[in-house]
Design goal:
By secondary structure, this protein is of the alpha/beta class. It has five helices and six strands. The protein has a single domain, classed as Flavodoxin domain (Rossmann fold, 3-Layer(aba) Sandwich), CATH 3.40.50. Strands 1, 2, 3, 4, 5 and 6 form a six-stranded parallel sheet that branches. 38% of the residues are buried. The protein binds ligand FNR. Ligand FNR binds next to α1.
Length: 186
């Protein structure tokens, strides 16, 4: 029986009706049986402050533990002012410490960005890629996912209704599974 990889999903939006959260759920449904996707909540993490490390907040310890236990990480994020939303950047800052031994170090990862606008969060996607690569995260190069016009892709219940996008995202999840498998073999 093929192994099922545990994928921790970090969503860069806290909005109840977030399109990116809908997208994270859609990706979970579309993914092959080799992947098991779980959202790890990051909205309640205190802002990173090195002074707190001596007695690290329990929420920091929990998110570090959950990411360390995952086989891979998937970031699904909107773009805020051409960059990564603060909530996601803060989570990554928390996960980047202790220096040199952060929970993200060496993990296979992938980035999905989405926006109601035409450019699909390209700026956020690449700022995030820059940060993750600097942390030694093995970010999948392609297929890249910049999902534009995202508000037109879901129905009122949050289900993905656009056939072409569904097929594209399914191919993305299969590629991500192969990426994780390749890196986990070493
Ligand atoms: C945005 N939005 C936005 N969109 C974009 O394509 N490029 C951008 O730079 C920004 N900047 C930005 C800043 C701030 C503070 C907000 C609140 C919004 C719009 C954004 O893509 C839109 O609100 C999405 O719906 C947010 O994603 P969720 O919450 O639906 O997942």
């Amino acid at each position: 029986m093929p192994k099922s990889y545990q994928v921790a999903v970090l969503v860069g939006s806290l909005r109840k009706k977030s399109f990116n959260r809908m997208l994270a759920h859609a990706l979970s449904t579309l993914a092959p049986s080799t992947l098991s996707l779980h959202i790890v909540e990051i909205g309640a993490l205190p802002f990173y402050n090195d002074d707190l490390e001596a007695d690290a907040p329990s929420s920091w310890q929990e998110v570090r533990r959950r990411i360390a236990a995952a086989d891979a990480v998937l970031c699904v994020t909107p773009e805020y002012n051409r960059s990564v939303p603060a909530v996601l950047k803060n989570a990554i800052d928390v996960l980047s410490r202790p220096f040199g031994a952060g929970a993200l170090n060496g993990k296979p990862a992938a980035i999905v960005s989405a926006s109601p606008g035409a450019m699909g969060g390209f700026g956020a996607n690449h700022h995030l890629r820059q940060t993750l690569v600097a942390l030694g995260v093995n970010v999948m190069a392609s297929p890249e996912v910049y999902l534009g016009n995202v508000s037109a892709l879901f129905d009122d219940e949050g289900a993905l209704t656009h056939a072409g996008t569904t097929e594209f995202l399914q191919r993305f999840t299969f590629a991500f599974s192969a990426w994780i498998e390749m890196l986990s073999a070493h």
